[in-house]
Amino acid sequence: MGNEFAQGQEWSHERSLDWHLLEIDYHKAQQTLSKDLNHLYKNEPSLQFDHSYQGFEWISYDDNANSILVFARKAKDCDEHVIAVINFTPTPHANYRIGVPKAGHYEIVLDTDEVNYTGSGYAKIKTYQTQAIVSHGREQSIELQVPPLAGVLLKWLDKP
User: Fold this and answer.
1) Pairing of strands 56-63, 81-87
2) Burial of 106 (0-12, 13-18, 19+ CB in 10 A)
3) Bridge partners of 158?
4) Do 15 and 75 belong to one domain?
5) Which domain range does residue 15 map to?
6) What is the pTM of this model?
7) Do 65 and 108 belong to one domain?
8) Which long-range contacts (CB under 8 A, 24 or more apart) does 1-6 make?
9) Rounded Cα–Cα distance for residues 60 and 25 (Å)
10) Do 85 and 148 fall within a single domain?
11) What does the pLDDT look like over 37-84, one tens digit per residue?
12) In angstroms, rounded to a whole number, what is the distance separating the alpha carbons of residues 87 and 52?
């Protein structure tokens, strides 16, 4: 209760939520992010197949030098997928290469560092084309801008 707008106090059944916090940009932005995440989860098939290991695939779990995790979420019974790139440090990465499951175009569908979420707006490129460069044991990869302290979701759009 209250997490959807970053309420600082623990919820108590004895009082109302701190709705007045929505007058502050940061709290309003957190509410917007929660709304956008819920909308994306509801409408993205690759995020709905979460009751099986087949809906998840690690891409990179061992980049401890940069504190970045990369994984794919896959839809049931089709090729649709999204890739999550999560940066746990305040250091942005301008040219971070990740292996991807399929050749084609990838588009950012969510970037928690966007200005409307009170982020820095670091990543300016929103669409990436795969390259035939091996990375993370995959034949195709993309080189993307990874914002600081943020999560980015990229959706596979089509074949090249």
Assistant:
1) unpaired
2) buried
3) 105
4) no
5) 3-43
6) 0.88
7) yes
8) 3/34, 4/30, 4/31, 4/34, 4/35, 5/30, 5/31, 5/34, 6/30
9) 34
10) yes
11) 999 999 999 988 888 888 899 999 999 999 999 999 999 888 889 999
12) 25
